[in-house]
Automatic annotation (TrEMBL):
Species, as recorded: Granulicatella balaenopterae
Name of this protein: Beta-phosphoglucomutase
Localization: Cytoplasm
Binding site for substrate: 8-10, 24, 43-48, 51, 77, 115-119, 146
Swiss-Prot/TrEMBL catalytic activity: beta-D-glucose 1-phosphate = beta-D-glucose 6-phosphate
């Protein structure tokens, strides 16, 4: 039986995936690298430094900067990103998310956050939903990022649950891959093009409903 939900944050709970994209796009442009939304799909769920590496590689400029310069570039992107999310409030929750979280708590589901973002706790605070989460996986403590299953395995174990007792929710291809590799039931929010590997796919957060997910879990067994 399902007893817990392990959530991605950016693009699932709030539209911050868009802010990550805008901040990377601006930084890339300064480096004379043009990135578009299609390329950005590969950055979703990927850590700050790994995202920068992918952008530099894409622009064939990965040999141009040393480690210290790369850290300065990543810090610059983060400053821009933080300026974009600094005023988030409850109003920035994606449609249906507040209702879904309330429904989960009413059904005694345990909630974990499994975001690669070091800004996760700050965002949850601003969105006014930090108290709803029983635990937050610390991305700084991970050996491997998504698509490695580690962050979802940790989310389940920090809840005191097995992966089979949890559902993972993601908007990123790397995230769905991570949930599947963990042996957890995966819910994808997005398009079949990107998230075809999800066990259960919905196109928007408005469609999040506990009963539908539990039916899908039962059918997948
Ligand atoms: C999430 C987002 C990525 C972001 C990563 C690190 O996984 O989907 O776009 O790069 O977190 O976020 P941070 O806030 O620590 O730079
Ligand atoms: Mg995401």
């Amino acid at each position: 039986t399902i007893k817990g939900f392990v959530f991605d944050l950016d693009g699932v709970i709030t539209d911050s995936a868009e802010y990550h994209f805008l901040a990377w796009k601006a930084l890339a442009k300064e480096l004379d690298i043009m990135i578009n939304r299609e390329f950005n799909e590969q950055l979703k769920g990927v850590s700050r430094m790994d995202s920068l590496e992918r952008i530099l590689k894409y622009g064939a400029k990965d040999q141009l900067y040393n480690q210290q310069e790369k850290e300065a570039l990543a810090a610059k992107k983060n400053e821009h990103y933080v300026s974009l999310i600094k005023d988030v409030t409850k109003k920035d929750l994606l449609p249906g998310v507040s209702e879904f979280l309330t429904e989960l708590k009413a059904k005694d589901m345990k909630l974990a956050l499994a975001s690669a973002s070091k800004n996760g706790p700050f965002l949850l605070e601003g969105l006014g939903i930090k108290e709803l989460f029983d635990t937050i996986v610390d991305p700084a403590q991970l050996t491997h990022g998504k698509p490695d299953p580690e962050i979802f395995q940790k989310g389940a174990s920090q809840l005191g649950l097995s992966v089979e007792e949890c559902v993972g929710i993601e908007d990123a291809p790397a995230g769905i891959e991570a949930i599947n590799a963990a042996g957890m039931f995966s819910v994808g929010i997005g398009s079949k093009d990107s998230l075809g590997a999800a066990d259960y796919l919905i196109s928007s957060t408005e469609e999040l409903a506990l009963d539908n997910i539990l039916v899908a879990v039962a059918h997948t067994k």
